[in-house]
Amino acid sequence: MEEQTIRVGITHGDINGIGYEIILKTFSDNRMTELCTPIIYGSSKIAAYHRKALGLPSVNISNIGRAEDAGANRVNILNCVHDETKVELSKSTEIAGTAAFKALEVAVSDLKRGVIDVLLTAPINKHTIQNKKFHFPGHTEYLEEHFGDTGAKALMILLSGDLRVALVTGHIPLSEVASKVTKENITEKLEIFNHSLIQDFNIIKPRIAVLSLNPHAGDEGLIGDEEEKIIIPAIAEAEKKGIMSFGPYAADGFFGSQMYEKFDGILAMYHDQGLAPFKTLAMENGLNYTAGLSVVRTSPAHGTAYDIAGQNIASEESFRQALYAALDIYHNRKIYSEATRNPLRKQYFDKGNGDEKLDLTKDSEDETL
Predict the structure, then answer these.
(1) SS3 content of the chain, % helix, strand, coil (to 5)
(2) Which residue in 135, 266, 271, 279 has its CB near the most CB atoms, within 10 A?
């Protein structure tokens, strides 16, 4: 199977959280290494510490010096963090932030070099990871800087099965949301979202629901006019580009009436508007996907979960689904690339003295070819 050759780079995230727990639980099932070649960026010693501290099943891990040496049908770990790095379960520490960044930095470098195919990131502490090289509110923005050199923009999509929620604005203060909700920004996100649904999820003609910014979609301007002045014109502009988007819908009624089941994607205006209902519906198996870039990156939809770290009660389901999604998206992108590599050009058939041409891409009632 093609999936057996996909090399999945896995960053260990915050070593004081549940990252190693969900990674080790996932790969305690030997069948997982039949699907891909996992490469954990972290420390074999730290992994062993977590396994023993939590009483987790043993996982046969092979130490490698570089990603190119990863072996199939086994779990590989690339040691990029000092063995003496101190683990303090459930605590937020600068040491853990440094270890999280080092793993991410090495993995992203390998992703750029093409020695891993996809990236799966365990949760980080967005405060302790900050440094001169990482001055971002999250993975999404960091990856956009590294892989958006051609102008590509990243789009965060939360997904679970057929439920896919994307955001116009992401990790910004709520006080700044309204100023970022512009016609241009919405149209750009719709374009990225639409392309991702086609390329990454194999949906030929996606239907995208667009949520409103104000309660009750503004009530025809009574409690805000952004819907009439910004969102509706953005939907109209997207339609000119061949994108099927609908709305704007008031978020409460949209999710409360299960209208989300009728769409391939949902574009929310801000973080909690989209993520609060999403996590209510799919906290256990939801995942985060960074769309819009040339690389595939997924992660579980939850955080470091310090409150349960070290208790052996964390569920690995979200992490497992993030792994499955990375493999599926990588596979779908290959199919899309092959299908669109050499598109057919319009062909014409000369007739008569060459003054007239017949377009073979259209039906003709006058000619029998």
Answers:
(1) 40, 20, 40
(2) 266
237 burial class (0-12, 13-18, 19+ CB within 10 angstroms)? middle
- 15 and 124 Cβ atoms separated by less than 8 Å: no
Q: How confident is the model at residue 149 (pLDDT cuts 50, 70, 90)?
A: confident
Question: How many Cα neighbours within 13 Å face the side chain of 364?
Answer: 11
Strand duo 118-121 + 356-359: pairing: unpaired
Least confident of 180-184, 274-278, 302-306, 359-363: 359-363
Task: Kindly state the percentage of the chain with pLDDT values over 70.
Answer: 92
182 Cβ neighbours under 8 A, 6+ residues apart: 230
Would you say residue 324 has pLDDT above 80?
yes
Domains of the chain: residue spans and CATH: 1-151+293-369 (3.40.718.10), 155-287 (3.40.718.10)
Q: Exposed, middle or buried by CB within 10 Å (0-12, 13-18, 19+), for 9?
A: buried
Distance between CA atoms of 322 and 352, rounded to whole angstroms?
Answer: 60
User: Global pTM?
Assistant: 0.89
Instruction: Grade residue 342 by pLDDT with cuts at 50, 70 and 90.
Output: confident
Interval 237-255: pLDDT, tens: 999 999 999 999 999 999 9
Q: Environment class of residue 97 by beta-carbon count within 10 Å: exposed (0-12), middle (13-18) or buried (19+)?
A: buried
Is 38 in contact with 66 (CB distance < 8 Å)? no
Radius of gyration of the chain (CA): 23
| Other C-beta atoms lying within 10 Å of the C-beta of residue 35 | 15
Place of tokens 């490469």: 39
Going by C-alpha positions, the residue among 3, 8, 2, 83 that lies closest to residue 48 is: 83
